[in-house]
User: Fold this.
Amino acid sequence: MRVLVIGGGGREHALVAALARSKRVDAVLCAPGNAGTAQVAENISIPVDDHEALIALAKERAVDLTIVGPEAPLCAGIVDRFRDAGLRIFGPTAAGARIEGDKAYAKRLMKHAHVPTAEARIFEHYDQARAYVATRDTGVVVKASGLAAGKGVTVCDDPAEALLVLERIMVDQQFGEAGQTVIVEEILKGQELSVHALIDGQTIYVLETAQDHKAVGEGDTGPNTGGMGAYSPAPIATEELLSYVDENVLVPIVDALRNDGVDYSGVLYVGLMLTPGGPKVLEFNCRFGDPETQVILSRLESDLFDLLEAVVDGKLADADVRSTAKPSVCVVMASKGYPGAYERHKTIEGLDVAANMDDVHVYHAGTRLGNNRVLSTGGRVLGVTALGFDLADAKARAYQAVDVIKFDNAFCRRDIADKAIHATAGS
Ligand code: AMP
Ligand code: GLY
Assistant:
């Protein structure tokens, strides 16, 4: 089989690496890919939004299955186009991807299906939004409804800050059309949990859990990023909690989508806040998480190609899904300045030494090849991932690998997985 992975980040490197391990896969293409995917796949320099060129590539190279990494092409309807062209592709249609691309729609769907989520108001007019926030005496979360490259959500500790954020989104149009509709919601407190469910239109299969570290600084301080690290499993996700999520979130939302005419197919990533009042949905994503994919797929023992194909063919009920009991930890190495403007074009050393360590996978995120060297191009540069006999061991191995990799002004958080290690210590 020949597969094509669309995207060029750490999540896509993890997908490419797991697909390359499949006995049924002979060749992996990745568009556009990065220096890491180039080691196991053939990179093709086509941007993720050039759907016509991607379709032409899939036809020309007789690709049997395409897997879409990022949300933007999904929301823009790449799955619909591939299917119209008679090509097999993993991911939801544009109508399904709306659950991520239109947060107001997702909120309404959740309300309708009685899915637990933060109390929220939806605004299309700045004056109304401003008037509402001005009457509040507590902090709120302000969200641009559309896709804003992970930057559309601000947790505002006081209403004055929320007014500034509203003005930036609705008046200055910081996110363009994505900010025409805004959601103002209550701040939820608790630990976050990422639940990834494969869905084939009917069957729902929950993958191993993961927890992400969004804040840039240790102890969860500083601005939010795309994710500075992750670990799997999340010990906080008990069987009981997962069956609550299945019953109260996944089943009702898949039913609500179906009632809306959408047979959701692909992965649904549920971002939850585990509040004292029970789990509540922060958001739905129509794709795999990054860096959650790196930790989840590092643990997968069964064949990823078989699994994704089962989703596409509506045969998920028969699929074989096995993961190692060994936990995994992913530490993101980032460029100075991230999540703001960051440095790039730095030469990265030590990658081979790290990659040869036992149970270590160095997933590339923002890298490219130049003059036979690996250079940094992104804010998140690498996702250094290790398995261990427990979380503390996986963490230690991941940082041993991090410590042999060098590029100018690289930084990482040193406390990835500590939350879970401390919670389980002595238990
Ligand atoms: P979202 O894209 O909606 O998940 O938001 C991105 C991040 O913002 C989440 O992962 C949380 O860290 C934070 N966030 C979103 N909504 C809330 C909320 N209601 N209360 C507290 N934090 C939130
Ligand atoms: N790890 C956060 C995300 O993928 O959205």
Summary: The chain has 15 helices and 22 strands. The pocket of adenosine monophosphate (ligand 1) is lined by residues 118, 141, 143, 153, 155, 185, 187-188, 192, 214, 224, 271, 282-283 (CB under 6 Å). The CA atoms of residues 77 and 270 lie 21 Å apart. The first helix runs from residue 10 to 20.
